[in-house]
Amino acid sequence: MLNGKKTSRRTVLKATLGGAALAAAPGLIKYANAASDFKIGLFIPLSGPAALFGPSAKNCGELAIDEVNKSGGVLGRQAKLYIADAGVPPAEAAKSAVRLMLRDKVDLIVGNHDSAVRQAIVGAVKGKIPYVYSPVYEGGECSPNVFMLGETPQQQLMPAIDHFAKTKGVKSYYLIGNDYVWPRVTNKLAKKYIAAAGGNVVGEEYIPFGPANKFESAVTRIKSAKPDLVVITLVGGDNVNFNRTFAEFGLDKNISRVASLLEENTLMGVGAESSGNLYSSMAYFANIESAENKAFVSSYKAKFGAKAPVLNTLAESNYAGIIFGAALTNKTGSTNAAKLAATAEGLTVSTPTGAVTMRNRHTDKNMYLAKCNGTQFKIAKVFNKVPSGQTCT
Amino acid sequence: MDPIAVTIALNIIYEITTLFVIVLGLAIVFGLLKVMNLAHGEFIMVGAYAAYFCQDQGWPYIMAIPFALFIAAILGYLIEFTLIRHLYRRPFDTLLVTWGLSFLLREVIELVYGKGFQSLSNPIPGSIDVLGEPYPSYRALVMVIAILSVLVLWVWYRRSLTGARVKAMVENPELARAVGIRVDNLARHTFVVGTCFGALAGVMLAPLTRVEPFMGLDYILTSFFVLVVGGVGTILGLSSGAGVIGGVQSVVSNLFGETSGYFGVLLIAILFLWLKPNGLISRS
Amino acid sequence: MTSPIYSFDGVTGGYGGGIVVNDVSGCVEQGQVLFVLGRNGVGKSTLLHLLFGYLQLIRGSVRFKQMDLVGKKPEEMSSLGITFCPQERVVFGELSVLENLILMRGNRDITHLEGYFEHFPILAERLSQDAGTLSGGERKILSFVRALSEGRELLMLDEPTEGVQRENILHIAQLIRERKKSGATFVIVEQNLELLDEVGDHVLVMDQGKVMISSRKDLISREDIVRHLGV
Predict the structure, then answer these.
(1) Which one is predicted more confidently, A23 or B177?
(2) B262:A208 CB<8 A
(3) Same-domain pairing of A68 and A159
């Protein structure tokens, strides 16, 4: 009996070691046919607070690679993904970027993460290889050889606020966001758009990241400030908690809300009962009724099944980032930084959100204002080809 | 009375009472068994998912209570029997084990339900009038239940012989064994009571908050603050800890915003650790 | 001669694998009192801890009414009819005197305690007070009454008279005599010979973990005992 136990433990050990060796094997194979691949380093959040988007972002990355390869690859080579975790501290991400460049010799980096990580990667890469930054962000990045696909505050809020002022007679605004750079910059710009639309800001507050936030006091302040519209730049769980508390106190009946990062998962958490008069302003929703998006959704479902992680703006931007990076490189014919920059200006690429055109290393793109209908988005208004307002040269 | 003042006062009471419910299970296990259960937040999470399961099945919300208790009791017994009982009087080891356990519980829930948010319907939508101000009914009910449960638990612990046996076990386990108290079983039941209170807190709070695998992490830090301030081992200490932490958080947030509220709590916790490490009221 | 109701043979053991008690044997008949005597630190309390199951025996056997007690845990003893009063930390200080007395009963009825209160009125006066507020001697009395009131067949008492006033030692003796008559058996560790004189039947004198004298009390002179207790 004792003997038997010993043997079985050893067998388990062997199996574990064998497994580890197997897991290491693909790495070896990668080295073997390294020369022929066009390597794309992909930063997506696999851990940390945004890890929720990891699986869908990874899927979209793989889908994009499939499609790039189906139409001939990049510079005649097969595209291949090298995935790195972006849900780590910026210094760690910088190390990963250096590793991808020096060890794996990637030709292009695509990233989907916050600005702190972007700045770390920009600092590590130093423009040596092109870097496509794909998610929604506050704007302001102009480093050489970096290309921004995501929507800026101007795209998210300028037409939306104008729309609320004109069609709903919104006059007073309350701004609430998490306490970091994206909400603060977004709200700074939002105040300009509000003033331009003839409205006034009756309250503005920022909620720290990290602790378990409760929103009773914020909701009570909003209740006494009586705004017509609350502009929300909270993210993730705070966005869920705020909107649930807001509706629970009955404020949803008379006060509209517009959020800048309310995607499919977050809305699921907010729930049908708490989403009355709640809007989201983004460049992508999974149910956009365009031919590009329908094709995208159906190939996503075909590849990953009906039960695959739900599509959302961050996953889509990841797909778009790879498609854009491949198109840019192919059109340029090389990864030479100066040539890429020249090609990029005015380059139009078709993505699920519609055709995007690069200007000043940001994109003019379609923006959608969606109204929440239960836990579904219903597109209320499309703003075509909205400029980013960025001025990189 | 100023309507906003009424709402603010109710918010403060809500903050304190829910904090009490959140910390209760942790305080029982730590105060009586000296086991610092870092997976306490995950039991709250399990309770919330149990409620979600019931909603998914189309059962009435009240069914979530027995169901969550059932799940938490099974988990509690299993965990106590396989892990915790070997580690009594080894506080650092229990810290590590329950920390690992918290990962495991999150992973299991993630496997079943995924990483995404789930939402629970409010079982009692609408609001009631409190001094002429509307206040969400379900919140009011949660507050009433929390206050009642403090009172019932307090009276029970002071008056019942089972409560006395628990006290006996904590104070003098050797003598407790001599008079025939099965300390192993009593400790196991006590641990399970702790996990069950965690799950109950999850059921109560699930309709009010976000439900996702990592939600437990929200609760564990504040819970420790409450224990630091209140001291362990007495219900009075626990109540005063919840009162101070919840009160400071709520009052400062209302006056100066959420960031200040958070720093207020942090400051209080640090001051207590420094100047009054045994908390306001602690077992001698 | 009747066979002993409680016997232990070759008991050897101690704390953490060390040997404090070495090859100690003894026995007691029903309704009788076995006194374990000896100076401080000769292993008397360790012997009781071994017999009551707090410590594991390295060798030896323990039998009560033909039942093998080796390997039984302390918390199982009460259901087998045995109770124990420790030498130190004898009561639950955070519980009231009343709670100490009725802890393992199903209700708060105290009629069964009235007889004890006649002997020790101080307990009746302090029923609702925390036991931690009692003096050392009063705690010993509370512990003794608690054990007696459980109504077990075998009582193991570790220095029940330590710190107790002489008058109350006589009350203790009288209660032991009454209980012996109704068939209860005692194993008592003592340093005080007064209680031995009052209620003793058998004597076991220990020194350095070993048995020096094992005898019926009436077959041994007090001088022999005192010689072993002296320095």
Answers:
(1) B177
(2) yes
(3) no
